[in-house]
Every structure is written in structure tokens, then in C-alpha cells.
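Reagents: none. Just compute today. Cytosolic 5'-nucleotidase 1A-like.
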Amino acid sequence: MSEMKAADVSVSNKDQKEDEHDWAAAKEFFDKLGSKKRPRPPKPQNAVTIAVSSRTLFNMVKERQFYEDEGLEKYVAYQQEHENEPLMPGAAFPFVKAIMTVNARLRELYPDSEELFDIVLMTNNHAQVGVRLINSINHYDLTIERFCMTGGKSPIGYLKAYLTNLYLSKDSEKVQEAIAEGIAAATMFNIEKEIQLCDNQLRVAFDGDAVLFSDESEQIVKEHGLDSFFEHEKTFENKPLAQGPLKCFLEALGKLQRKFYAKNERMDCPIRTYLVTARSAASSGARALKTLRSWGLEIDEALFLAGAPKGPLLEKIRPHIFFDDQMFHIEGAQQLGTIAAHVPYGIGQKYNKGKLKEESPKKK
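Predicted 3D structure written out:
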């Protein structure tokens, strides 16, 4: 048995050395290209990897309707005919642009570091559609070098291979599959109202229960009411909540934030995080904050709304993305211009009655 284990370790070390050799060769090749405009992508094991679908990065409502009306073959032909026409920005576009701003700052402070954001375009589009996607990415000067085009098959199986930290899609079923695999994921919707966002700081807002935390406390609310919830939270104030589906993404953001803190850049950090929760501060806020502390995680701003609408506060924050598990919070935020992403997780999904959906152009 010990000989088998030794052999396994030997094989693992060999694979690791081969991997390092391949990356060194890739780095040498990329450096020889002499491109100052296109920095080379980081190694996946060092990066915070964001996988975005083509329909979240770009507004492809018209193209989607064409596919549904005309079928795959005509859709591919249509995309080839229009491949020199850039697609319009989609819901995830401002988030991706803000990520690029953070990477630029990180490269200034740490020229040789590979602890950066890395964006992967994850789509079930046919490979022939890739030319239009590439042309659109180049048109907007986006740094996206990794593509996964699966030709109609679900891309979910590739998320772990790409070491994905966050997956954003228009397809709620795929998002649920990703969460079931332990990957942070959320469903995005079309932007209803455009507002001006900060162009030098990535702002990410999170709900608490069933997003950063598990839904255990939310179960108490739904099944036994608020009074039982307040009593439960007081009793278990010093017991950390279990982690929710987005906890690991907050952790990844914190890792990059600490790189700025190490350079005395805390007050000028280009990443800012927010907890925007319906919890009451005095009655149930302590457990949320103590849970984050027990995880060794910081949140820059914590807003306890005691059941008040989140939309008006989010309108002031203007995050590049806001994560929530409740559709009525998503819809309220969207109506005031916030880019919101739904996390389909926990007991709250039994009560969700959201109306948001991708609108298609009206048929003539």
C-alpha cells in the first residue's frame, strides 16, 4: 500500500512539473509576441476566474429570437453574415469592464504576479459563431483570451476544469447545475434602466441569507415567523452560519483586496464589497457579522434594512453587480437601474414569483 502511495505521489509530482514546463513555454511564446496591449492570461490556479455566457456579456436578444424562429443552420449563417457587426453590451459588460480596471491596478503594483481576475467566455454557441464574438470582444478592447464554445452542449461540465470562481448566465437551469456542483453562480437579466457606474472601482453587493450564508435562518422565518427567527438568532449568535453559494466568491475578492492593503492602498482599493440584507441590525445583525469574522472575511459596508426595500439603497451604491436569492428584491433593484443577479438557492425559491425574463423582439 505504501508503495502504491509513493507511486501516486511520484506521478502527481511529474504531472505538476510537466504543467509548469508547459506554462513556462506558453509564457515565453506570449512574451515573444511583444504585445503591450494584450497582457498574457494568468495561470488558472492563480487567478480568480469569472465565466460569463455570451448572452450575459452581450445583448443577444435579437440573435436568440432568430435562432428560435429559424433554427440552428440559419442562425449560424446569420452570425457569419453579420460577424463584422459588434454585438451590443449585455448585463455583465460593466462588471467585466470593472474587472479589467482592477487587473490594470494589480499589474501596476505587482508586475510579475498572476493573482488576477481571468475571464472565460463560456457559451453553448457553435464554434463558427465565435468569430463574431471575438470581433465584438476586440471592438470593445476586452481582455478575454479563454473561450469555451460547446456547440449546443451544456458548458457546465467545463466549469471545474477552468477552476471557475463565479459563473454568470442567462439560463437559470445551468446556474442551478453549477451551484449543485459547488460553484458560485447567478442568473442575469436584461438591464431595464441604464445608470452611470463608477469607472475606477469594482463594486459588488451581496445579500446575506441564502447568498453568502446558508438558508438555515431563512427557513426559520418562512416556517415559524419573525419572532421565532429573532429568538433563534439570539440563541445562536455566537455560532457561525454555514456558508452559502457565494461565500467563496467573496473570499476570492478578499484575497485580491488584501494585495492592495499590503501596498497601503486600503483607502484607494479598486474593489469594494457591500452586505445589503433584509435582516434587522439589533435583532439579528450580530450573527451575520460574527460569521464573516469567523471566516476571516471583511465586508466594506454593511446595510441592515429591517425588511425595507433594497432598491433605493442600491441606487445610491450603484454596484456593478448585486446578488440576491429573492426575485422581488431583484426586480425592485432592476427597476431603479441596479444590475442584479439571481442566486437560485435555498427555501426562498419555493416562494419566488419573479416576472423577469428575457424579452424578445416583437414579431412583425
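Residues 2-32 form the longest helix (31 residues).
Action item: order primers for follow-up constructs.
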